[in-house]
Design a protein that fits this description.
Blueprint lengths: L3 H20 L18 E4 L9 E5 L7 E4 L4 E9 L2 E20 L2 E17 L3 E2 L4 E2 L4 E6 L11 E7 L4 E8 L5 E7 L5 E7 L3 E8 L8 E5 L2 E5 L22
Antiparallel strand pairs: 1-6, 2-9, 3-4, 4-5, 5-6, 5-9, 7-8, 10-11, 11-14, 12-13, 12-15, 15-16
Length: about 250
């Protein structure tokens, strides 16, 4: 019987640890919050810092509730960690890149900066109160973004298909982008003869260049921000001819 008491104490301690983790799932006891943001913040005294070149969207003290907030351009979904009626940290995700987030609390705030932009982060807090080593309650959150989103252009993919007896070299372009993309081309082995066209979004586009005899008919393809090059294939094009016969009614 003397061995049962230590086991019971271990069970009670384990149960207490589990209940404590359920009551304080976000890493804070009292309001000592563990920072979990993906970047370290910079402290700024006073209110929101002025950062040139960005639009600002603020979730003010009366609107600190979970859900989607926005200004017509930026939409932000936020979730607050609340303890004793105070918002102590915030998770967020957005519909467009955000470059800075300012979390105000007490006499200043923490500025989280994301370089090339981010569309989500978590565990953002206001600064720590030096008097009690606890974070200040969040009074508002400001997001910095730009209205213009830089469009990333994926490279066009150029393939040499075949050459025909008409002195034409056939090429194929695949455009992996979700938008059409204008291009130009030239045959550097044939006095740079070429032309222009439009590569259809997420589709294949074909074009022909005038070929020169006894050369590789190396063709360069250009588009906004990029280029590629490909020599012509030595394979001859194969054409299928379909003959359609129309039979008329003998009564006509």
């Amino acid at each position: 019987m003397g061995n049962l008491r230590p086991k019971r104490q271990i069970v009670l301690l384990t149960l207490f640890t589990f209940l404590f983790s359920v009551v304080f799932p976000l890493g804070f006891a009292g309001n000592n919050v563990t920072h979990a943001a993906s970047v370290l913040p910079d402290y700024y005294s006073g209110n929101d810092p002025e950062i040139g070149g960005f639009e600002e969207f603020k979730i003010d003290s009366g609107d600190l509730y979970d859900g989607v907030h926005g200004d017509g351009t930026l939409n932000v979904s936020v979730t607050f960690a609340v303890y004793n009626g105070e918002e102590l940290s915030v998770d967020w995700s957005s519909n467009r890149p955000v470059y800075h987030v300012f979390v105000k609390g007490g006499p200043g705030g923490n500025l989280y900066s994301y370089g090339q932009g981010a569309t989500e982060d978590w565990g953002l807090t206001a600064p720590i109160n030096d008097n009690n080593d606890q974070v200040y309650a969040i009074s508002h959150v400001t997001f910095y973004y730009t209205e213009e989103i830089e469009e990333v252009i994926e490279p066009l993919q150029l393939t040499s298909v075949c050459s025909d007896q008409r002195g034409k070299a056939r090429f194929r372009i695949y455009n992996p982008n979700s938008f059409d993309l204008d291009f130009s081309y030239e045959n550097v082995d044939n006095d740079n003869v070429g032309g222009t066209g439009t590569a259809l979004a997420e589709d294949y586009t074909f074009f022909y260049v005038d070929a020169a005899d006894n050369t590789a008919n190396t063709t360069k393809l250009y588009w906004e921000g990029g280029s590629t090059v490909k020599a012509s294939s030595n394979q001859y094009c194969k054409y299928e001819v379909t003959v359609i016969k129309e039979w008329q009614n003998s009564s006509n």
